[in-house]
């Protein structure tokens, strides 16, 4: 397996990275630990989570697993600073009632508090990649960069990144870092799959220009590309649309399901499972460092492992382009980003 450079950092990451959004929600800890150990065994070396995932339990599971196997320093831990105001009763254990509305967001006040919580849950003294979960227009980017710079200098984080930010905001952050000596943004983590290709218009060209690592989420379009959904308004009981509803359900569209059916046929003709082709397509798109794989069972994980060694052919790339043209979308995976005004093309 050939590892890839994470932007211009010099850090090497596996061509597929492990996303843990489903840890504890709904996957039990024993299964999570088994999948993590298997992933490390075959070469995965970056595990991504967020401090709000399962109210912090995702970080705890990762921390306990790495403590048990003794492999903390063999992997890269990536987490995020929560972007939504928490509600009483649905909070992390270090919730401070006196802070009220200041429990979240990329402010110095919140991040200094949040990083300590993540370190505690991970049972480690540093985080390899700390990411700002969403753009917050009420917090000036200099406030965020200044706090992140201090956290890097304190040794609590190694690299910093953004998630689901517009290209102009990433560019602003990079230029401010160069002008004022702040820590430089190393990565962006956007949604990207065959059903929503809009990052190809501006974000990926910008990333190439500035040497930014791109780690993408939802490469299988929440299972739409793997044939999970048959109808736009009917969801399998164990699907994310059924379990979480809201903006997850809004991503399931009739056009997306139609493309998913054609995509499954294409995968079968190529001798692949739909999940394998979805990951392979995303992994080998120009400008992509690595997609996040989010298996919910060991069987799912085993299905993805062969993709680590695969290469997308020109014929398959063209066939996928015929299903959804470059730069367009038939489902909206930017629906948690307030800055994205265009919904469907």
Shape: globular
Average the pLDDT over all residues and give the rounded result. 92
Could you say what the CATH topology is called?
A: TIM Barrel
Class, according to the CATH hierarchy? Alpha Beta
What structural class do the secondary elements suggest? alpha/beta
Number of helices: 12
* CATH-derived architecture: Alpha-Beta Barrel
Strands side by side in the biggest sheet: 3-4-5-6-7-8-9-10
Query: Rounded to an integer, what's the Rg over CA atoms?
Result: 19 Å
Instruction: Tell me how many strands there are.
Output: 10
Order of helices and strands: EEEHEHEHEHEHEHEHHHHEHH
- Output the CATH homologous superfamily: NADP-dependent oxidoreductase domain
Q: State the end-to-end CA separation.
A: 37 Å
Helix content: 25-40%
Instruction: Tell me the major beta sheet.
Output: 8 strands, parallel, barrel
Whole-number total of structural domains: 1
Give the amount of beta strand, in percent: 5-15%
Low-confidence stretches: 85-91
Task: Describe what this molecule looks like in 3D.
The protein has 12 helices and 10 strands. The radius of gyration is 19 Å and the shape is globular. The longest helix is centred in the last third of the chain and has 16 residues, at 254-269. It is an alpha/beta fold. α1 crosses α2 (57-69), α2 packs across α3 (108-122) and α9 runs antiparallel to α12. 38% of the residues lie in helices and 12% in strands. The model is unreliable at 85-91 (pLDDT under 50). It has an 8-stranded parallel beta barrel with strand order 3-4-5-6-7-8-9-10, surrounded by 4 helices. Strands 1-2 form a two-stranded antiparallel ribbon. The chain has a single domain (4-323), classed as NADP-dependent oxidoreductase domain (TIM Barrel, Alpha-Beta Barrel), CATH 3.20.20.100.
